[in-house]
Amino acid sequence: MGGFDSTSNVYAAGLYDIETAGTMAHSFVESYDSEIEAFRAFARSRPHQCIFLADTYNTLQSGVPNAITVAKEREQRGHRAGRLRCKHMKY
Q: I need a labelling partner for 8 at 20 to 30 A (CA). Which of 20, 48, 68, 87 fits?
């Protein structure tokens, strides 16, 4: 195999000194006291490649609004808003 320049596996990234890429995991979101806290932490750790996962709890009632809030906060600090992933729609 060839042509890979990043991985979503954090262990592999450290082991082989390659960049991590991809979206946040549901387990990452669930490890925080609130969804918005998780989004802020993820945004701090990935200021240039931020993809929020908005369907861990309630896509439309919390996920999307929280992602928009953090995206606006990022823009105020000079970073692009990022992207949003909603794999499963939970209402």
A: 68
